[in-house]
Amino acid sequence: MPKVYYKAKNKNLRKKFRILSLFLSLSGILTFFYIFSPLISWQVYFAPVFASSAIEAPIPKSTIVNPSSITSLISNATSLGVDYNNPQNWFPGYKTKSDFNRLISYTLSIPSLGIKDAVVSTVDNDLDKHLVNYSGTAVPPDNGNTVIYGHSTLPQLFNPKDYKTIFATLYKIKIGDEFFININNIAYAYRIHSITIVDPSDTSIFTQDSDGSHVTLVTCTPPGTTWKRLIIKADLEKI
């Protein structure tokens, strides 16, 4: 009788160890995918689009799409402790210029992405609540360069009504696409002419050009990271 008891006990222990091992293995797999999901998303969603698009990038295509660049991306990712809800932290080398805007807010619609009447604030920098017209840049439809910031995340989490994810699929936009800015019930059409990817140290996107009304859309890339900046440039369509 005692022998039977000890065998049953050993069998239960082995079963518990197997369950514990399985649990730890699953936890490790989930942790791996959680940490590397931005890189996986980059390869699955963004890289094929980038490779097949007319995107002009200061960084060579082979460098961006090549998986060997992952190590350098990780080594350059020093975003811990930075508040990316405030767009003033997106380009550390650029000094914000104070400006007084008569217009408090307006709306942005991008039909090709399913974004409709997204609020753009000219006075508040909280990207969790709305898009942001960067301080010191033009306000449409005035001449100059309007720089609009928006959050991105993993593409599968995209929700056009959630400002934490609103620009998650911005990489899908194409040269020649239109988006619309609505001010006081007047819609202004802007056509995209340039798509680039830059480092956070590149502040050339803030350059003002007074020969017309221009808009620059900005979000972080690869999806789910803050390593690079995706830059979409558009000009006001002539009526």
Order of helices and strands: HHHEEEEEEEE
Number of strands: 8
Beta fraction: 15-25%
Alpha-carbon Rg, integer = 23 Å
Q: From the helix content, strand content and strand pairing, which structural class follows?
A: alpha+beta
Largest sheet: 8 strands, mixed, barrel
Describe this structure as you would to a colleague.
- The chain is α+β, with helices and mostly antiparallel strands.
- It has one domain (42-236): Sortase, Chain: A (Beta Barrel).
- Helix content is 26%, strand content 25%.
- The protein is built from 3 helices and 8 strands; from the N terminus they run αααββββββββ.
- An 8-stranded mixed β-barrel has the order 1-2-3-4-7-8-6-5.
- The radius of gyration is 23 Å and the shape is elongated.
List the SSEs and their pairings:
Layout (H helix, E strand, L loop, with lengths): L1 H51 L8 H5 L4 H7 L28 E6 L4 E7 L9 E3 L10 E6 L28 E6 L2 E13 L14 E9 L6 E9 L3
Parallel strand pairs: 2-3, 4-7
Antiparallel strand pairs: 1-2, 1-5, 3-4, 5-6, 6-8, 7-8
Features:
239 residues, alpha+beta, Sortase, Chain: A, 8-stranded mixed barrel, 3 helices, 26% helix
Short summary of the structure?
The protein is α+β, with helices and mostly antiparallel strands. Helices cover 26% and strands 25% of the residues.
